[in-house]
């Protein structure tokens, strides 16, 4: 079983990497990019039958910093 975890900074948290990407895109001539938020994708190869609650626990204990980040889980 595979799962994909998407981790993003929460709204209102400054994203310096996103700002750098937005600035670089503008410098390269890509106009119209108002904002960029950068996150991370984590793909997990799990034993069949792993519960979504277990994956949530992984996220909250290690994969995401719950103070400044949020996450979504996709079962693939």
Automatic annotation (TrEMBL):
It catalyses: N(2)-formyl-N(1)-(5-phospho-beta-D-ribosyl)glycinamide + L-glutamine + ATP + H2O = 2-formamido-N(1)-(5-O-phospho-beta-D-ribosyl)acetamidine + L-glutamate + ADP + phosphate + H(+). Keywords: ATP-binding, Cytoplasm, Ligase, Nucleotide-binding, Purine biosynthesis. The keyword Coiled coil does not apply. One of its GO terms (biological process) is 'de novo' IMP biosynthetic process. It holds the Pfam family PurS. GO terms for cellular component: cytoplasm. GO terms for molecular function: ATP binding; phosphoribosylformylglycinamidine synthase activity. It comes from the Bacteria. It is found in: Cytoplasm. Pathway: Purine metabolism; IMP biosynthesis via de novo pathway; 5-amino-1-(5-phospho-D-ribosyl)imidazole from N(2)-formyl-N(1)-(5-phospho-D-ribosyl)glycinamide: step 1/2. Its EC number is 6.3.5.3. InterPro entries: PurS (IPR003850), PurS-like_sf (IPR036604). Part of the phosphoribosylformylglycinamidine synthase complex involved in the purines biosynthetic pathway. Catalyzes the ATP-dependent conversion of formylglycinamide ribonucleotide (FGAR) and glutamine to yield formylglycinamidine ribonucleotide (FGAM) and glutamate. The FGAM synthase complex is composed of three subunits. PurQ produces an ammonia molecule by converting glutamine to glutamate. PurL transfers the ammonia molecule to FGAR to form FGAM in an ATP-dependent manner. HAMAP family: PurS (MF_01926). Part of the FGAM synthase complex composed of 1 PurL, 1 PurQ and 2 PurS subunits. Belongs to the PurS family. This is Phosphoribosylformylglycinamidine synthase subunit PurS. It comes from Pacificibacter marinus.
């Amino acid at each position: 079983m595979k799962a994909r975890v998407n981790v993003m900074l929460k709204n209102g948290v400054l994203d310096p990497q996103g700002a750098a990407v937005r600035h670089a895109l503008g410098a390269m001539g890509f106009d119209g990019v108002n904002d960029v938020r950068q996150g991370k994708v984590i793909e997990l190869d799990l034993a069949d039958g792993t519960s979504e609650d277990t994956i949530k626990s992984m996220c909250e204990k290690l994969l995401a910093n719950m103070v400044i980040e949020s996450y979504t889980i996709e079962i693939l």
